[in-house]
Design goal:
By secondary structure, this protein is α/β, with parallel strands linked by helices. The protein contains six helices and five strands; from the N terminus they run E-H-E-H-E-H-E-H-E-H-H. It has a single domain, classed as Ribose 5-phosphate Isomerase B, Chain: A, CATH 3.40.1400.10. A five-stranded parallel beta sheet has the order 2-1-3-5-4, with helices on both faces. Helix 1 crosses helix 5, helix 2 packs across helix 3 and helix 4 runs parallel beside helix 5. The structure holds D-ribose.
Length: 149
């Protein structure tokens, strides 16, 4: 299950991404917002991240104007590795090397077609298990737990 969440700036792009997930027959949970009223992106990042942390959803896609604010808030939830991507290479590497479990998109940065390509590659790319990448992801999670180097 994929969680989708966005602020007011992300509604249009969220609908495009939901359409892509429908096409790919991937189940998703749309937390909202679906109202054009101005709303606070930290809430949506946090609410989406909570569903990934709890295991209710495996992955999350969050959208605001830039993708920045909503990713910063999602990343404050322990266990979340949320990446803002505006290109397919970073999207692919964020899965292969960083095992990102959430993707943030900027609705005012990327157009719908590019955003859909980014989502596709991000969803279809597996993490390269084991080896140096696992060790480095473990280091990131260690920092989150207060480990010092
Ligand atoms: C809302 O205007 C905008 O600040 C928000 O969507 C996002 O870009 C914040 O990072």
């Amino acid at each position: 299950m994929i969680v989708l969440a966005n602020d007011h700036a992300g509604i249009g792009l969220k609908r495009e991404i939901a359409g892509l997930l429908d096409e790919l027959q991937l189940p998703y949970k749309d937390l909202g917002t679906n109202s054009p009223e101005s709303t606070d992106y930290p809430l949506w990042g946090y609410w989406a991240a909570r569903t990934v942390k709890s295991g209710e959803c495996d992955k999350g896609i969050v959208i605001c104007g830039t993708g920045v604010g909503i990713s910063l808030s999602a990343n404050k939830v322990k266990g979340i590795r949320c990446v803002v991507c505006s290109d397919c290479y970073s999207a692919k590497m964020s899965r292969e090397h960083n095992n990102a479990n959430m993707l943030a998109l900027g609705a005012r940065v990327v157009g719908p077609d590019l955003a859909k390509m980014i989502v596709r590659v991000w969803l279809e790319t597996p993490f390269e298990e084991g080896g140096r990448h696992q060790k480095r992801v473990d280091m990131i999670m260690g920092i989150e737990q207060g480990k010092e180097y």
